[in-house]
From TrEMBL:
Protein name as it appears in the record: Enamine deaminase RidA, house cleaning of reactive enamine intermediates, YjgF/YER057c/UK114 family
Similarity comment: family membership: Belongs to the RutC family.
GO MF annotations, alphabetized: deaminase activity
Source superkingdom: Bacteria
GO cellular component: cytosol
Pfam families: Ribonuc_L-PSP (PF01042)
Length: 137
């Protein structure tokens, strides 16, 4: 039988601010099952609820959120086995996305799927990133 663990962030988390969004929309930032960690799609949302206007900064904030979740689980980007990025405008974002991604993922490259989409949860959002990582246990 598999053991499933759901991550609950500290209420004073510097990256997320609190669990308010997760509680409001009833989901977990990450779920661990059978040696894999499924991290919910992360957006460029700062702890104070604001969204950067600059595309690179928005992408960077999304990666910082993933990094924070990984850190809470004792993992880092070398443990990521799959990355899926959702782009409102792939053509204008891909170069910036790759530039930011290369600051976080430098080796042990995961499988990566790039998807163009019509919209995200808020109109000012341009990208969402979800990852799957392998646990070290």
């Amino acid at each position: 039988m598999s053991q499933i663990e759901r991550l609950r962030l500290p209420e004073d988390d510097a990256t997320f601010g609190s669990n308010r969004i997760f509680d409001l929309f009833q989901y977990s930032p990450a779920v661990t099952a059978n040696g894999l960690v499924f991290i919910a799609g992360q957006i460029g949302l700062r702890a104070d609820g604001s969204i950067p206007e600059d595309p690179k900064e928005q992408i960077d904030v999304a990666f910082k959120r993933i990094e924070a979740v990984l850190r809470h689980l004792g993992l880092d980007f070398t443990d990521v086995v799959e990355l899926v990025s959702y782009h409102v405008d792939v053509g204008s974002q891909l170069a910036a996305f790759r530039e930011v991604k290369e600051r976080y993922i430098r080796s042990d490259f995961p499988a990566w799927t790039i998807l163009g989409i019509a919209a995200l949860a808020r109109p000012e959002l341009i990208v969402e990133i979800k990852v799957v990582a392998a646990t070290r246990k």
